[in-house]
Design goal:
Elements: E1 2-9, E2 18-19, E3 24-34, E4 37-46, E5 49-51, E6 60-61, H1 70-99
Antiparallel strand pairs: 1-3, 2-6, 3-4, 4-5
């Protein structure tokens, strides 16, 4: 019987705007001879807990501003609409006063 242990982790980069994944995977491979064949058993741990999924690393990066000002444009259009509605209401009220 033979045992091998592999530790897999991501090397941290130097970009200060990136949060690098600190996950550590431990892969244990145990082999044994059975009927003239070599059989292997593989177990994986993710940060010390048993794990059966794919080994992936996820980094987070601060995104630069997009320059999108759509919310400002919608606010200005809504405010302008309210001002025009109020102006139309005042104009209508004055015209009504003038005809009486």
């Amino acid at each position: 019987m033979s045992n091998w242990i592999y530790t897999i982790h991501e090397l941290q980069g130097t970009d200060p705007k990136t949060a690098y994944d600190s996950t550590v995977y431990t892969v244990r491979v145990t082999t044994r001879a059975s009927n003239g064949q070599l059989e292997a058993t593989v177990t994986i741990e993710k940060d010390g807990a048993p794990y059966a999924g794919a080994m992936t690393f996820v980094n987070r990066r601060e995104m630069p501003p997009t320059g999108d000002r759509m919310h400002w444009l919608l606010g200005i259009l809504a405010a302008s609409s309210l001002v025009m509605i109020a102006g139309a209401y005042v104009l209508r009220a004055r015209r009504k006063e003038g005809t009486e």
